């Protein structure tokens, strides 16, 4: 367990090598590299420029005949020692050169721009989000991950550092979207309504400032603020697939051959209760559902739907489990107009729907389908299940089958039943409770598929997960009458604020392990109006990563100083496990105690489940 400030933030100038090297770049010494010389001569000129217009800065650079391919003298450091006490930066190349190289004509590469650092080159990597590049203006330094290592490139002058950032942002945009990084290119990608996304440095942060005022200041926790309370081993031969947390007495650990019932306490999950074994269809025949991947609680947490995607990550139906009897009572089929169809995912009707004692509906999602399934027949009566050898058929009660191109990937619901959907192309769409045909708001993608999405109970905030970062979006806007609304209830038009990104530092991106892709990002769990989520959590490799929600929304937060482009937050806490983590999520807010600002965090690995308390004490 630990925090986000690591040895990679050590000032590189503190080393003996650095002091010696700085003498080489004293103003009295000749500089052999022409680009570096021009950078020094025009330092004052470029310092006056602002990041409001990348084109303006680039025009100045081009007037100096400084092109992306021109090598520039710099210093390259390598981070060694990982997370050990001996971890440190070592000088790898004293007089390195870097260049953004255009490989568009290279048949072996599908990516245009590469960052190459020589001689050699020592580093050659595509300019994309996988670099996890983090700029440090105070040290004229850019840290990044490439080739399984963590590097730091330190530029000789402020002007050269600004030039590097401008070139990097341009190359990243062009690699991501496949268009030139011009005003026309940005408008093509983001559209007229998303000027704040295209030009975040010029965006109005008022909505974020308003959000800060709506919450109490975050509690600052000293040192040991993640305390492990309980740890439960998986059963013999089990491999934990997912968690189904309850807001009442029990939660459920979904394993490779069944479901383990555990008790909810204020300190976390504890105690092995009854075990529900899933052996196949009713009557014991083999079934593809024997290894459940997704569990959905419903009907006052007395029933559960189990879904096990097969080929192409889709399923033709769900198992219906009566938790009180421990039996599978039905296998429901997905059908529309008499034709069997498949679903990629299922979700509760709303944030608190699993607590409703008589709920009979749930949501379904496939690549081009968004719908509501009803376990009652078309006349509204609960279907009889038990004696028939044929599987009961779910009633498609509402929804829309899009012709093509939506590429839905994941979804979630708000407290009132509005729906947010993430797509492979990175778009995030908002649907009102009353209509699944047309999105009220569609946020553009940032170039990475959305693999998981969550939303706050009040629908004001959305958290999207990609492989390399999380994206936090505010849906609040004011209509023409000055009334506050969300993008679920009305069209936001051009009143859309820039999102914020949540990222790992380059070092943590490497330390997280080989399976270092984010998954399952979500808010802490509330099910009442007036309650506010306090934290965000996501899983990446061996890490569960926790952000303070209030801190992320704070426009004056230290992470955001001197940043260009979309603001990124690197201040987080980490729970480290010995193996890759399956799932991480907070228990219901009712399990928070007086000495903790949040309910316990539950972390599941393939072989065990651990609970952590975020405490206000040493």
TrEMBL record:
It comes from the Eukaryota. Residues 14-25 have a biased composition (Acidic residues). Residues 242-561 form the Vacuolar import/degradation Vid27 C-terminal domain. It holds the Pfam family DUF7135. Residues 1-42 are annotated as: Disordered. InterPro entries: CYPRO4_DUF7135 (IPR055559), Vid27 (IPR040458), VID27_C (IPR013863), WD40/YVTN_repeat-like_dom_sf (IPR015943). Residues 49-191 form the DUF7135 domain. Residues 1-10 have a biased composition (Basic and acidic residues). This is Vacuolar import/degradation Vid27 C-terminal domain-containing protein. It comes from Urochloa decumbens.
């Amino acid at each position: 367990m630990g925090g986000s400030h690591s040895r990679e933030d050590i000032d590189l100038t503190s080393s003996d090598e650095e002091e010696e090297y700085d003498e080489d770049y004293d103003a009295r010494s000749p500089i052999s590299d022409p680009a570096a010389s021009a950078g020094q001569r025009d330092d004052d000129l470029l310092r006056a420029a602002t990041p409001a217009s990348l084109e303006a800065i680039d025009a100045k650079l081009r007037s100096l005949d400084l092109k992306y391919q021109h090598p520039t003298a710099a210093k390259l450091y390598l981070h060694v020692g990982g997370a050990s006490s001996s971890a440190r930066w070592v000088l790898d190349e004293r007089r390195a050169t870097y260049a953004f190289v255009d490989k568009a004509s290279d048949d072996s590469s599908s990516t245009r721009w590469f960052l190459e650092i020589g001689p050699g080159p020592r580093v050659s990597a595509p300019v994309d989000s996988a670099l996890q590049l983090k700029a440090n203006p105070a040290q004229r330094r850019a840290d990044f991950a490439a080739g399984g290592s963590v590097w730091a490139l330190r530029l000789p002058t402020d002007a050269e550092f600004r030039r590097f950032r401008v070139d990097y942002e341009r190359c990243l945009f062009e690699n991501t979207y496949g268009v030139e990084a011009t005003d026309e290119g940005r408008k093509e990608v983001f559209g007229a309504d998303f000027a704040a996304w295209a030009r975040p440095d010029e965006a109005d942060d008022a909505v974020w400032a308003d959000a800060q005022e709506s919450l109490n200041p975050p509690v600052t926790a000293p040192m040991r603020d993640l305390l492990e309370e309980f740890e439960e081993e998986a059963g013999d031969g089990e491999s934990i697939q997912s968690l189904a947390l309850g807001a009442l007495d029990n939660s459920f650990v979904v394993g490779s051959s069944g479901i383990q019932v555990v008790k909810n306490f204020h300190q976390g999950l504890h105690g092995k209760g009854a075990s529900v074994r899933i052996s196949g269809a009713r009557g014991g025949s083999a079934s593809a559902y024997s290894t459940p991947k997704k569990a959905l609680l419903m009907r006052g947490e007395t029933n559960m739907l189990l879904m096990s995607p097969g080929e192409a990550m889709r399923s033709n139906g769900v198992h219906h489990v009566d938790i009180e009897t421990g039996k599978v009572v039905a296998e429901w089929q997905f059908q529309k107009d008499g034709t069997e169809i498949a679903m990629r995912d299922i979700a509760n009707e709303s944030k608190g729907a699993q607590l409703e004692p008589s709920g009979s509906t749930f949501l379904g999602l496939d690549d081009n389908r968004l719908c509501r399934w009803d376990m009652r027949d078309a006349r509204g009566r609960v279907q009889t299940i038990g004696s028939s050898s044929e599987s009961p058929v779910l009633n498609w009660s509402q929804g829309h089958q899009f012709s093509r191109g939506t590429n839905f990937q994941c979804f979630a619901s708000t407290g009132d039943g509005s729906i947010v959907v993430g797509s492979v192309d990175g778009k995030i769409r908002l649907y009102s409770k009353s209509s699944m045909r047309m999105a009220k708001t569609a946020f553009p993608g940032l170039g990475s598929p959305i693999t998981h999405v969550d939303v706050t109970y009040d629908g004001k905030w959305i958290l999207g997960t990609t492989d390399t970062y999380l994206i936090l979006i505010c849906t609040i806007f004011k209509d023409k009458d000055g009334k506050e609304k969300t993008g679920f209830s009305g069209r936001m038009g051009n009143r859309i604020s820039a999102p914020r990104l949540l990222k790992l530092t380059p070092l943590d991106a490497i330390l997280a392990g080989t399976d270092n892709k984010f998954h399952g990002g979500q808010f802490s769990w509330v099910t009442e109006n007036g309650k506010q989520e306090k934290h965000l959590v996501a899983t990446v490799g061996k890490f569960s990563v926790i952000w303070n929600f209030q801190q992320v929304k704070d426009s004056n937060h230290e992470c955001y100083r001197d940043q260009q482009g979309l603001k990124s937050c690197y201040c987080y806490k980490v729970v480290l496990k010995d193996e890759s983590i399956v799932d991480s999520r907070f228990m219901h807010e009712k399990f928070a105690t007086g000495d903790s600002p949040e309910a316990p965090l539950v972390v599941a690995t393939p072989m065990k489940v651990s609970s952590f308390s975020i405490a206000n004490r040493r």
